[in-house]
Amino acid sequence: MSDHTFGKTLRSPSHFFHFALSLSLSLCQKHSSISFSQAMALTFKLAQLQSKATQASQLVSKHAPLYYKQLLEQNKHYIQDPPTVETCNLLSKQLFYTRLASIPGRYEAFHKEMDYVKHIWKNLNELKIEDACVATLFGLECFAWYCAGEIVGRGFTITGYYV
Questions:
Q1: Does 147 map to a domain?
Q2: Alpha helices (H) along the chain
Q3: Are 28 and 34 in contact (CB under 8 A)?
Q4: Which of 2, 91, 109, 139 has the lowest CB atom count within 10 Å?
Q5: Which range of residues forms the domain containing residue 46?
Q6: Element (H, E) at 26
Q7: What is the pTM of this model?
Q8: Which of 91, 68, 93 is nearest to 80 (CA)?
């Protein structure tokens, strides 16, 4: 079935039902392990999903313009006039150079933190159990975020990459 036919098929609920029914029948024919009742259950679930998606789409299209207007009204003090490409380019440059100017302060803060870690490392006998537990929990949290990033990077598989 071509994409063109698929787009035409889903224009109304009755067309969608007929499409889902034909899909169910073709599933039964191609995969003998799928019974007709399973295919019909799949058809019913697809019809329910299409109905819920239509409801959600209607809800969003009804309320989105109002939400957009409220959001702009609440945050109008952040909006630069005139809202042109030139203004956006100027703001982009201001953000870049402001971030660039903040590097020395961040560098200094990083060195203060490193000095504190070196001081703690030299004086391990003064380390409290609470501080050690907090540091351990922080390390475990960093490891957990690393593992989560690896799983996401692999396409949400735990065992490995798709080959």
A1: no
A2: 3-9, 13-30, 36-74, 85-101, 103-122, 129-153
A3: yes
A4: 2
A5: 3-76
A6: helix 13-30
A7: 0.41
A8: 91
